[in-house]
């Protein structure tokens, strides 16, 4: 149930100011860490607003990845992918991990969690336009990183499920005539809402009701709500829905020129150790593999020494 879930406890915030504060802190933490590593370097870093514009752009990219699959992925998987993406960048700067790489990683993990059965090779074939072993290795190497950033809270309560529940209830009570003819508009609004921060601010049922209101109009929705709620409760619900509508309608999407400018700036300040196409990334991976091999050899030597000592003690006891 949503109200006892990790999503309700850890990933629903009181205000958009709190969300922006977390992102600003992530931005500042990366800059401070980077300046300590390169104290004499004159680097112009991204500011929180530039990060937000880039994230909005790549949130749409997550949705586009999901649409490439055949057969189509369920709508709930789109919700899971977008939720992972939003959660990841609450506490991580885009200068640490590029959003394009994390977009693929979030969809890849969502396929597993939502049981859309694809192998890594099938995923690369369908989801990644320019397939490469670098990206495939990045997905495998960084799945644990994503799990840690999500604090292992993997269950996502998507608004698509309560939406279906509301539509069934509406048909049963016959409170809104021909509700199915509004389904396309309702689902389009719901998908658009998931591109904003409302998934971090409101419950899935509130988002579903906001989508229905957008599709059929406020008057018809009020007629439906009056069958189950009192006047005070309806006013509270409508206040929430109005806020959702305002956030969804006020989303700012940067144009391509602005995105290209931010991307160019990002190239000068990002952490290339997390870029699967950089030499630094591969050098780090080689170092990790060498460290693992050294650890294996050390462990093998320890076991060999223990066995040798036991055999020596046994031989001495028999003499």
Explain the layout of strands and helices.
Layout: H1 6-10, H2 16-37, H3 48-66, H4 75-88, H5 99-113, H6 120-127, H7 133-149, H8 160-173, H9 183-194, H10 204-216, H11 218-225, H12 231-249, H13 256-267, H14 279-318
Organism: Hydra vulgaris
Domain Cyclin N-terminal: 53-154
Protein name: Cyclin-H
Protein architecture, described:
It is a single chain. The protein has 319 residues and is an all-alpha fold. It folds into two domains: 2-157 and 253-269, Cyclin-like (Cyclin A, domain 1, Orthogonal Bundle), CATH 1.10.472.10; 159-250, Cyclin A, domain 1 (Orthogonal Bundle), CATH 1.10.472. The chain has 14 helices and no strands. Helix 3 runs antiparallel to helix 4 (75-88), helix 4 (75-88) packs across helix 5 (99-113) and helix 9 (183-194) packs across helix 10. The N and C termini lie far apart (69 Å).
CA distance, first residue to last residue: 69 Å
Q: Strand tally, please?
A: 0
By DSSP (H or I, 4+ residues per run), the number of helices equals 14
Percent helix: 55-70%
Number of domains: 2
Percentage of β-strand residues: under 5%
Strand count, sense and barrel status of the largest sheet are: none
CATH superfamily of the largest domain: Cyclin-like
Judged by helices, strands and strand pairing, the structural class is mainly alpha
CATH topology type of the largest domain: Cyclin A, domain 1
Q: In one word, what is the shape?
A: globular
Low-confidence stretches: none
CATH architecture of the largest domain: Orthogonal Bundle
Reading the helices and strands in chain order gives HHHHHHHHHHHHHH
Mean pLDDT: 89
Tell me the name of the CATH class of the largest domain.
Mainly Alpha
């Amino acid at each position: 149930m949503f109200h006892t879930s990790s999503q309700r406890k850890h990933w629903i915030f009181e205000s958009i100011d709190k969300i922006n504060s977390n992102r600003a802190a992530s931005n500042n933490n990366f800059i401070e860490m980077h300046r300590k590593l390169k104290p004499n370097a004159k680097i112009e870093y991204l500011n929180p607003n530039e990060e937000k514009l880039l994230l909005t752009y790549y949130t749409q990219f997550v949705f586009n990845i999901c649409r490439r699959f055949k057969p189509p992925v369920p709508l709930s998987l789109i919700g899971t992918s977008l939720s992972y993406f939003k959660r990841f960048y609450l506490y991580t700067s885009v200068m640490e991990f590029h959003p394009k790489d994390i977009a693929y990683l979030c969809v890849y993990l969502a396929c597993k969690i939502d049981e859309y059965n694809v192998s890594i090779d099938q995923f690369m074939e369908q989801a990644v336009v320019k397939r490469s072993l670098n990206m495939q290795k990045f997905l495998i190497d960084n799945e644990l990183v994503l799990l840690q950033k999500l604090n292992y809270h993997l269950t996502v309560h998507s608004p698509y499920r309560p939406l279906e529940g509301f539509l069934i209830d509406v048909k049963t009570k016959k409170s809104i005539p021909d509700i199915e003819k509004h389904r396309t508009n309702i689902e389009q609004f719901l998908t658009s809402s998931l591109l904003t921060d409302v998934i971090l601010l409101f419950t899935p049922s509130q988002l579903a009701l906001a989508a229905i209101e957008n599709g059929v109009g406020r008057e018809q929705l009020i007629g439906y709500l009056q069958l189950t709620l009192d006047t005070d409760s309806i006013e509270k619900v409508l206040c929430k829905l109005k806020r959702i509508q305002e956030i969804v309608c006020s989303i700012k999407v940067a144009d391509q020129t602005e995105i290209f400018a931010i991307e160019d700036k990002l190239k000068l300040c990002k952490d290339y150790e997390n870029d699967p196409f950089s030499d630094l990334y591969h050098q780090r991976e080689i170092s990790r593999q060498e460290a693992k091999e050294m650890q294996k050899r050390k462990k093998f030597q320890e076991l060999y020494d223990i066995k040798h000592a036991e055999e020596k003690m046994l031989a001495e006891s028999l003499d």
